[in-house]
Amino acid sequence: MKAGQTVVLSHRRVDLALHCLAEASSECRPLLLLHGLGERTPSIRPDWVESWPGDIWGLDFTGHGESTVPNGGGYFPEGLMSDVDAAIAHLGEVTVLGRGLGAYVGLLIAGARPELVRGVVLDDGPGLHGGGPELTSGALVELAGLDGTSPDPYALLELSQDVRPPDYALEFVRQSVHLSGLDQPITVVAAANPSWLEAVSSDPSVVTGNLSEALFRYSTVSS
Description:
- By secondary structure, this protein is of the alpha/beta class.
- The protein has helices spanning 77-91, 101-112, 153-159, 166-180, 195-202, 211-219; strands at residues 6-11, 14-22, 31-34, 56-59, 94-99, 117-123, 186-188, 207-208.
- It has a single domain (6-132, 147-219), classed as 3-Layer(aba) Sandwich (Rossmann fold), CATH 3.40.50.1820.
- The longest helix is centred in the middle third of the chain and has 15 residues, at 77-91.
């Protein structure tokens, strides 16, 4: 696969766009980028991942970018986690860099697929906070005038309100730590500090630092 090309993955009745942003001759595993809420994969390799020695890929979540916009909404982070699972099934072992919403989804997939996610970096971006740690009064919303373009307004609405209890997030930290075989499989580089990320950062196995150091460390982790 050449840089600039896109693989289309059929998953859960949607087509997911998985973009190759850079190809390398290095034996290093791919870096998988997960974008923020309402965003899409960059069209070219971002300069902030220039140092990654392996291939670089980016996934458009359902309802975003070139991936399918389904009818009627029904978005939740665990559903997006299954999008990432489909991408990993195609790529094999990866290191994940998630921004905003992608950071939260990246944490979930690190705990759900610890043997295949060899390090995850959690960074700032749209959708990092979600809807807070506790349930609020629900509302039934029907949006009018939708034309199927992305980002899907239902995704923007629903994923900005998903509940993120700190103890739930910590379960995925523990699964990643216990099953990945890595001493420090999670690195937080985000400056924002929502309650779920504060809990994650407080775990002794989680590193806080900067992006370049995190990418270097995970690029040297053996399979």
